[in-house]
Design a protein that fits this description.
The chain crosses the membrane at residues 426-456. Residues 38-131, 351-415 form the Ig-like domain. This is T-cell surface glycoprotein CD4-like isoform X2. This protein is an alpha+beta fold. It has helices at 2-28, 425-479, and strands at 30-36, 41-43, 60-64, 67-73, 76-79, 88-90, 97-99, 108-114, 117-130, 135-137, 143-149, 158-162, 168-169, 173-177, 180-184, 194-202, 207-218, 225-231, 236-241, 253-260, 268-275, 281-285, 302-307, 316-324, 327-343, 354-360, 368-374, 382-384, 391-396, 400-408, 411-420. The protein has 4 domains: 31-125, Sandwich (Immunoglobulin-like), CATH 2.60.40.10; 143-218, Sandwich (Immunoglobulin-like); 226-337, Sandwich (Immunoglobulin-like); 344-420, Immunoglobulins (Immunoglobulin-like), CATH 2.60.40.10. The chain is 17% helix and 44% strand. Strands 1, 3, 4, 5, 8, 9, 11, 14 and 15 form a 9-stranded mixed sheet that branches. Strands 18, 20, 21, 22, 24, 25, 26 and 29 form an 8-stranded mixed sheet that branches. A 5-stranded mixed sheet has the order 10-17-16-12-13, with no helix packed on it. The N and C termini lie far apart (209 Å).
Length: 480
Amino acid sequence: MESCSTGVNCMLAVFLVLHLGLTSSMAQQIEQQIGIAGQEVTLPCTGIPSDSSLSPHTVVTWMYSDTVIWRMENNNHWRKPGAVSDQFQVTSTNKELKVRNLVLSNAGIYTCKYGSYKARTSLHVFKLTVSLDGHFLQNEVPELTLMHNSPDPKPALSITLFNSNNNVVTPETENKSPQKHILNLKKLEPTDSGTWVCNVHSDSSLINQNISFVMKVLGFQDPAMERKYATADSTVILSWHLNFQKIKWNKGFTGQVNWKQQESAKAHELLDFNVTALGEQHETRKSSHLLFEIPERTPKSTIQVKLPKVHFNHSGQYQCQLAYKGRHVQSNIELVVMKVSANPVGPLSRGVKMTLICEVSGPLPPKAHLRWERVNGTQMDIKNSKQHEVKLEVNISAAGLWSCHLIEDNDRKISLHYHVEEAPVWINYVVTGASIGGSVLVFALLCLCIISGISWQRRRQRAKRMAQARQYLLENKTSG
């Protein structure tokens, strides 16, 4: 019986030794936590019993490195005095340490002690900074700065960026140091607006942390350069679609619309506008150089200029410019106007030719050309311009409906028609008669000129003979 008791005591002793060793081993393990600057992180006091199980005389201490920042003894709480201590708060139930509004200097080793037990946590802090506070204009280049602080040794980090469409973005340049990474990206487009993710990874420290950040790119939903074709005397509305409501810009900005007929010409300000932080849009007319209107019913987030009757000299470059904090971005619309005319103007008489002229106001892109053709005509009634030609003439002798097309990449952009009327039959007779009468008249005048010339020549010869006779008589008298 005594032997059995001794055996049981031995087993209990072995169990206690193993338990203490395991507890000691667990106490020496360091748990890792990741925190983001400006946010909050909770550090656990692993293994501590709940308040109801703790003795009133239990002492619980939180330390940062070797400095006590919080202590509980006999149910009395003590916190390190000073402004920094406002960052720290210990929960009453499980004694977790909450660190609020993290900064890089909060990184380090935190220790929770109660009795002989210690729970240690290694805190890594990351700080991601986006240039221009994350508010960009179209075509601007963002710079991301990732800073990292942690207990030594510092881990080697790799960074992967995902844009708002969850596509991997490769930086143009990346400068690395143990605690700082600077990444310069490509020019931004409005479609890049949204929530991006910076993934920080390290195999050595088992770090795999996603840091989200918002990018807002103010700009145009249209192409940076657009070409718009119009026919003379038609109504044209030029529109620029902005994205400030779509991306919830929530900051005021201004803008203006300018027009110049040629690249080297002086620009005329047509209107200016401003958008408030609440998204309210206001336009003001500025110029009287051009007959235009500001439509009363304009779609949301849209700037429009209406030309009620386009003239040939209304062509040129219309530019909408946005301005925010001294930075600018613009979108251009190149207006090209087409007109047609005839020489001579009027009905086409039989046997008479007419010249039709088709002309555009500005240079055409490389794959664009003009074409004249007669509706329901033959292949012989088609004429194409050469590359870069802005004026196309065709000599016609057939009446009917003629069309001039502006074709780009085999796509008809605009067409303008010219109806050539055939002269009435009586006009043809009048023209024929006038032509015959004119010919007879010319012939009669020619005959008259010939007869007059012959008569004049005879009179001259007669006068010459008479003068010779008088000279002869005078010589004979003198000699007699």
